[in-house]
Amino acid sequence: MPIKYAIQTAERFFIYRVLHVDDTPHRIALGVAVGIFVAWTPTFGLQMILTVLLATLLRGNKLVGLPFVWISNPVTAWPIYFKMNYPLGKAILRSPKIDLDRLRELFRIADSIMVLNYGEKIAEGSAEEVMENEVVKKAYLGSEIE
């Protein structure tokens, strides 16, 4: 029941506070744009302050921009940045593949290795165990496994 109540409360907030704000459409749209812009910046903890400052400087509505930065709280930021932005950036930049010889050289100096892929642990152990792990090979070397 609390989730349903929260959704209804948020819906009422947007309907009665955002859509019926006593301001010009231009200022409301500017406040929304500032909120969305700041929400996509990696400035956690400062986003509400930045939204109010930018909306003030640009003469946008300060109130309507704030709910849009709330989408980037720590609970929702992880999927936004690591499940969407990281794969997109990786695809655009087409980062070079790492060959096994370079990995062996790197692993020679470590006793234990933990391998992460998109923030999830996919392998842990000695260098030899990690090097032979098929999931690690697929994640970091792609389909070009030697």
Features:
8 helices; 146 residues; 2 strands; two-stranded antiparallel sheet; elongated
Task: Please give a structural write-up.
- There is one protein chain.
- By secondary structure, the chain is mainly alpha-helical.
- The protein folds into two domains: 2-78; 96-146, no CATH class.
- Helix content is 64%, strand content 8%.
- The protein has a two-stranded antiparallel sheet with strand order 1-2.
- A hairpin with a 2-residue loop joins strand 1 (113-117) and strand 2 (120-125).
- Helix 2 packs antiparallel against helix 3 (47-57), helix 2 (25-39) packs parallel to helix 4 (62-69) and helix 3 runs antiparallel to helix 4.
- The mean pLDDT is 79.
Q: End-to-end distance, in Å? A: 54 Å
Strand tally is: 2
Structural class: mainly alpha
Order of helices and strands: HHHHHHEEHH
Please tell me the total number of domains: 2
| Helical run tally | 8
Q: Give the helix proportion (percent range).
A: 55-70%
